[in-house]
Structures are given as C-alpha cells and as structure tokens.
Amino acid sequence: MKKKSKPKLDTMHYGADAFSFKMAETLRIRMTQAESILWEALRDKRLDGVKFRRQHPIGRFIVDFYCHKYLLVIELDGGIHLAKDVKERDLNREAELKELGLHIMRFKNEEVLSNLEEVKLKIIDYIRTLK
C-alpha cells in the first residue's frame, strides 16, 4: 500500500490564500510614498543584485517587501505604528513570521524619505550577514 505524502508547503508564500493574493494586488496599487521610493531602490535587483518582491503574501500576512533567497522581510512603519495596540499587533505578527524562519527589518517611513542611502546600506549589510 502506497503512503500518502503530505502536500508540500509553498515556501514562497507559506500557504497564503486567494484573498491574501487579491489584497496584495490592491496594496501594490496603493503603496505609500515611502514604499514607492524604497521599491524603486529594490526593484529589478537594483540593490546589490538581490531580488525583492513588494506587497508579498506570506501565510495570513502581506509583507511590504520580501527577498525569498535570504528569507528577508522588510517592513515600513508609518505613524500609526506608534499606537500601543498597533505596536502589540506588530510584535505578534513579527513573532509569527520569525517562527517561519524569516528575518525581519523594520524602518520608519521617515527614514526612507529622509535618508534612503542609509536604509539601503543597512539592508545590504544585513543581507551580507545572512550569506
């Protein structure tokens, strides 16, 4: 008798459902100014030859930017992330993503808007620690 094997988990999206993919499409259209600026720096392997995806579904979450090769999530935080309940939700979300083996970097929108070069250097430096 042949054993049934478990279906392989999609490690690019970690089981994200159709709703998450549809929501990600919408978020790509409605990116914030900071997200758009960082995306221009990340897209088409512009940052150190590393491929990133934007508004990428992972499980029940949609992350701002994702590099699958290094399992790196980059999140940008606006002012709303200073609220106590949002901070708590962010910590829980980050813990769940880390349980999947993902690495998370967070930047404030203001960092991207005021000093994009420093943000890019921090990302490159972090990726080099993962190689």
Compact overview of the structure:
Helix content is 45%, strand content 19%.
Essential attributes:
131 residues, alpha+beta, 4-stranded mixed β-sheet, 5 helices
Sheet with the most strands: spatial strand order: 1-2-3-4
* Order of helix and strand elements from N to C terminus: HHEEEHEHH
| Biggest sheet architecture | 4 strands, mixed
Q: What spatial form do the alpha-carbon principal axes imply?
A: globular
The portion of residues assigned to helices is 40-55%
Overall strand count: 4
Overall average pLDDT? 90
Descriptive report:
The chain is α+β, with helices and mostly antiparallel strands. Helix content is 45%, strand content 19%. The protein is built from 5 helices and 4 strands. It has helices spanning 18-29, 33-42, 84-99, 109-114, 116-130, and strands spanning 53-58, 61-67, 72-77, 103-108. The longest helix has 16 residues, at 84-99.
